């Protein structure tokens, strides 16, 4: 089969990690008889410098015509002080909206080889850390109108609107129930229904959708408690579904407790059309261009892309096994290196890519 992939390397370490991920993808293609055709597109600061905007229409069009989008990371200090419509983040919101990628999947999984990297106590880590956060991505307070900063009673007042329609909640709830069905069959819906009307609607609709998924156990948790429980005992969670704002914060917390930001992939998908696959970390300007970045989150994002976008389960699994084999060998980039642990070898981005390619054989 021939698949067309849009490559959006972006800024900072983006080009370095995407280069390694493409090497892995090409090799898997050769092994399994697939051809991947790439279109390189501009996004983020690189696009601002080249054409004056963070998500050019040409990029959006190319993404729409592809089977999947592989994104490195965008942004950096050079572009931080531009007006909001020219910020790299604004470009990301645009491409998610244009591709109707309303569901963001972030698995927070701890490879056992990296247990010592977790910020949690060893007895908590020993219980297991394998949570999937499903975050709604195109609604909520990030997109709600009205919003703005106005003058009121002689002072400035800033406001945004948190809003969800019934259909928006229903479609993300369905996606989350489907995901839970394929995992541990437990779904925790996180809201703030004790205070917010929008959350009460969220909860009511999730309960309605549950009627079609009686094999999945549904629970509800307020977001403040969920933040605490994620740190106290993440093993109690299988799949978490939540809105855009709460999900933004909780998915970062879930990722952070693994202690390895350079290891975690993500997928943003819609009901149909291409999805966006990317590491959860940013463009790491502090280490850009130094061959220090960990490419494994991007390589694992390729595995998610093969599984979710292209339905290539076996191909995805060999990548995940290769990453695990490389960790078994003790190879570590700086972000996951522990000098106190014997038997580890500190390697750079390219050498880590080499090792995964070798492990794939
Ligand atoms: P960051 O994730 O880029 O970096 C945080 C820390 O983690 C840094 O010390 C960095 O060196 C380290 N790190 C991140 N990824 C790593 C990797 N693969 N290997 C080794 N170390 C890694 O977050 P930040 O510093 O807050 O943001 C930097 C820029 O990235 C900002 O402009 C921000 O807006 C942007 N950003 C982009 C995305 C995205 O493209 N989706 C996401 C988050 C942040």
UniProtKB/TrEMBL annotation:
<keyword id="KW-0100">Branched-chain amino acid biosynthesis</keyword>
<dbReference type="GO" id="GO:0051287">
    <property type="term" value="F:NAD binding"/>
</dbReference>
<dbReference type="Pfam" id="PF00180">
    <property type="entry name" value="Iso_dh"/>
</dbReference>
<comment type="pathway">
    <text>Amino-acid biosynthesis; L-leucine biosynthesis; L-leucine from 3-methyl-2-oxobutanoate: step 3/4.</text>
</comment>
<feature type="binding site">
    <location>
        <position position="224"/>
    </location>
    <ligand>
        <name>substrate</name>
    </ligand>
</feature>
<feature type="binding site">
    <location>
        <position position="135"/>
    </location>
    <ligand>
        <name>substrate</name>
    </ligand>
</feature>
<keyword id="KW-0028">Amino-acid biosynthesis</keyword>
<dbReference type="GO" id="GO:0009098">
    <property type="term" value="P:L-leucine biosynthetic process"/>
</dbReference>
<keyword id="KW-0520">NAD</keyword>
<dbReference type="GO" id="GO:0000287">
    <property type="term" value="F:magnesium ion binding"/>
</dbReference>
<dbReference type="GO" id="GO:0003862">
    <property type="term" value="F:3-isopropylmalate dehydrogenase activity"/>
</dbReference>
<feature type="binding site">
    <location>
        <position position="96"/>
    </location>
    <ligand>
        <name>substrate</name>
    </ligand>
</feature>
<feature type="binding site">
    <location>
        <position position="224"/>
    </location>
    <ligand>
        <name>Mg(2+)</name>
    </ligand>
</feature>
<feature type="binding site">
    <location>
        <position position="252"/>
    </location>
    <ligand>
        <name>Mg(2+)</name>
    </ligand>
</feature>
<dbReference type="GO" id="GO:0005829">
    <property type="term" value="C:cytosol"/>
</dbReference>
<keyword id="KW-0963">Cytoplasm</keyword>
<keyword id="KW-0460">Magnesium</keyword>
<keyword id="KW-0464">Manganese</keyword>
<feature type="binding site">
    <location>
        <begin position="282"/>
        <end position="294"/>
    </location>
    <ligand>
        <name>NAD(+)</name>
    </ligand>
</feature>
<comment type="function">
    <text>Catalyzes the oxidation of 3-carboxy-2-hydroxy-4-methylpentanoate (3-isopropylmalate) to 3-carboxy-4-methyl-2-oxopentanoate. The product decarboxylates to 4-methyl-2 oxopentanoate.</text>
</comment>
<keyword id="KW-0560">Oxidoreductase</keyword>
<protein>
    <recommendedName>
        <fullName>3-isopropylmalate dehydrogenase</fullName>
        <ecNumber>1.1.1.85</ecNumber>
    </recommendedName>
</protein>
<feature type="binding site">
    <location>
        <position position="248"/>
    </location>
    <ligand>
        <name>Mg(2+)</name>
    </ligand>
</feature>
<feature type="site" description="Important for catalysis">
    <location>
        <position position="142"/>
    </location>
</feature>
<dbReference type="InterPro" id="IPR019818">
    <property type="entry name" value="IsoCit/isopropylmalate_DH_CS"/>
</dbReference>
<feature type="site" description="Important for catalysis">
    <location>
        <position position="192"/>
    </location>
</feature>
<feature type="binding site">
    <location>
        <position position="106"/>
    </location>
    <ligand>
        <name>substrate</name>
    </ligand>
</feature>
<keyword id="KW-0432">Leucine biosynthesis</keyword>
<keyword id="KW-0479">Metal-binding</keyword>
<feature type="domain" description="Isopropylmalate dehydrogenase-like">
    <location>
        <begin position="4"/>
        <end position="356"/>
    </location>
</feature>
<dbReference type="InterPro" id="IPR004429">
    <property type="entry name" value="Isopropylmalate_DH"/>
</dbReference>
<comment type="subunit">
    <text>Homodimer.</text>
</comment>
<comment type="similarity">
    <text>Belongs to the isocitrate and isopropylmalate dehydrogenases family. LeuB type 1 subfamily.</text>
</comment>
<dbReference type="InterPro" id="IPR024084">
    <property type="entry name" value="IsoPropMal-DH-like_dom"/>
</dbReference>
